[in-house]
């Protein structure tokens, strides 16, 4: 049976360490809406590869440090 | 469109559908079948569609003004730039998540309209009045818009996945 990939992220933590950057600031810098950043942080949305790279570039880290992936049994 | 705009549009659509159902029942939804009454029904639908579009535009303008007013009242020290920035974050740009949600909710809307068209064909096939068939078609278009709006709201609330 195929396993479901659960993608989590550290955006909230990275924002905190980036001088407590606001969600609105991050949204403007990656050309997304604040609603999308809220959904990302809540784990309700997984971004496209392009947005993931943009977010990582804002924090100056690798994509793998922003997003983490683990396999979860489906069902 | 943001969650708020979608919610406002879906609610306005639901109110319009309710108004249409009341008005259509008042006229006699499955009225006589002569071409003159069908013409008058088509005119009624056209007027209703135009009024509906104007009403939705007006409701959207009022919603945006209300968002600005609420933000300005909450942040009395904010300047015009701050207000514009915050308001555009609420009702402004459409990004990739909005596009994905629009795409998925439009599928639901099209499914409603498709079922309405099939129901219209059934109405014709089983000899129901053309007026009833036209009403089913028009109601299914409105239902499609409402279903799309509420599906969007649901996806904004629950989240959305690719694939």
Outline the low-pLDDT stretches of chain B.
none
Query: What is the largest interface, and how many residues per chain?
Result: A-B, 19 and 19 residues
Computed over alpha carbons, the radius of gyration of chain B is 20 Å
When the domains of chain B are counted, the total is: 1
List keywords for this structure.
heterodimer, A: 75 residues, alpha+beta, 434 Repressor (Amino-terminal Domain), 5 helices, globular, B: 163 residues, mainly alpha, 0% strand, elongated
Could you describe the 3D structure shown?
The complex is a heterodimer of chains A (75) and B (163). With 75 residues, chain A is an alpha+beta fold. Chain A has helices at 11-17, 23-29, 34-41, 49-59, 63-66, and strands spanning 3-9, 67-73. Chain A has one domain (3-73): 434 Repressor (Amino-terminal Domain). Helices cover 49% and strands 19% of the residues of chain A. In chain A, helix 2 packs across helix 3. Chain A is globular and about 40 Å long. Chain B has one domain. By secondary structure, chain B is mostly helical. Helices cover 83% and strands 0% of the residues of chain B. Chain B contains 5 helices and no strands. In chain B, helix 1 runs antiparallel to helix 2 (35-74), helix 2 packs across helix 3 and helix 2 (35-74) runs parallel beside helix 5. Chain B has helices spanning 3-27, 35-74, 80-91, 96-125, 130-158. Chain A binds chain B through residues 24, 27-28, 31-36, 39, 42-48, 50-51, and chain B through 2-3, 85-86, 89-90, 92-98, 156, 158-162.
Quick summary:
Chain A has 75 residues and is α+β, with helices and mostly antiparallel strands. In chain A, 49% of the residues lie in helices and 19% in strands.
List the helices and strands and how they pair.
The complex is a heterodimer of chains A (75) and B (163).
Chain A: E1 3-9, H1 11-17, H2 23-29, H3 34-41, H4 49-59, H5 63-66, E2 67-73
Antiparallel strand pairs in A: 1-2
Chain B: H1 3-27, H2 35-74, H3 80-91, H4 96-125, H5 130-158
Helix pairs in contact in B: 1-2, 1-5, 2-3, 2-5, 4-5
């Amino acid at each position: 049976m195929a396993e479901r990939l659960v993608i989590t992220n550290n955006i909230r933590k990275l924002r905190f360490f980036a001088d407590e950057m606001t969600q609105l600031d991050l949204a403007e810098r990656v050309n997304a809406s604040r609603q999308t950043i809220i959904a990302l942080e809540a784990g309700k949305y997984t971004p496209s590869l392009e947005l993931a790279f943009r977010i990582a570039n804002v924090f100056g880290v690798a994509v793998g440090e922003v997003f983490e992936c683990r396999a979860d049994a489906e069902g | 469109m943001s969650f708020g705009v979608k919610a406002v549009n879906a609610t306005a659509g639901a109110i319009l559908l309710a108004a249409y159902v009341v008005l259509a029942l008042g006229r006699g939804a499955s009225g006589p079948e002569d071409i003159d009454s069908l013409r008058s029904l088509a005119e009624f639908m056209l007027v209703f569609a135009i009024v509906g579009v104007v009403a939705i535009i007006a409701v959207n303008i009022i919603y945006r003004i209300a968002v600005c007013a609420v933000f300005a009242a909450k942040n009395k020290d904010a300047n015009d730039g701050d207000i514009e920035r915050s308001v555009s974050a609420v009702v402004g740009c459409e990004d990739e998540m909005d596009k994905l949600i629009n795409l998925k909710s439009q599928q639901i809307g099209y499914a409603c309209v498709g079922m309405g068209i099939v129901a219209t064909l059934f109405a014709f096939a089983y000899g129901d009045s053309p007026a009833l068939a036209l009403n089913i078609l028009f109601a299914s278009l409105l239902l499609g818009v409402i279903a799309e709006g509420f599906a969007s709201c649901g996806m904004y609330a629950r989240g959305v996945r690719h694939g």
